[in-house]
Specification:
Keywords: Membrane, Transmembrane, Transmembrane helix. This protein is an all-alpha fold. Helix content is 80%, strand content 0%. It contains 2 helices and no strands. Helix 1 runs antiparallel to helix 2. The chain is elongated, with a radius of gyration of 14 Å. The mean pLDDT is 92.
């Protein structure tokens, strides 16, 4: 599960960078950027919840 979340997180970050540099403009670009940003946030939250909680 963590591996899949890391892969999706990396894909969303790469897609967001690509869209900001060479993607479509206007409303389409904004929607795609928001969707990739939400993907990054969702994967980050999932990885945060699945982290190892060791008490030292």
């Amino acid at each position: 599960m963590k591996t899949l979340l890391w892969l999706v997180l990396a894909a969303c970050v790469v897609a967001n960078v690509f869209l900001s540099l060479a993607g479509p403009g206007g409303a389409t670009g904004i929607v795609l950027s928001v969707l990739t940003g939400l993907g990054v946030l969702a994967c980050g939250a999932g990885l945060w919840l699945l982290r190892d909680r060791r008490v030292v």
